[in-house]
Amino acid sequence: MSREIYLNVGESFVVAQCRAENVGVSSVESLPSGGTRLVCMSVKGAETMREKLAKNLAKGEVARERGGPGLGFVARN
Question: What is the pTM of this model?
Answer without folding.
Answer: 0.79
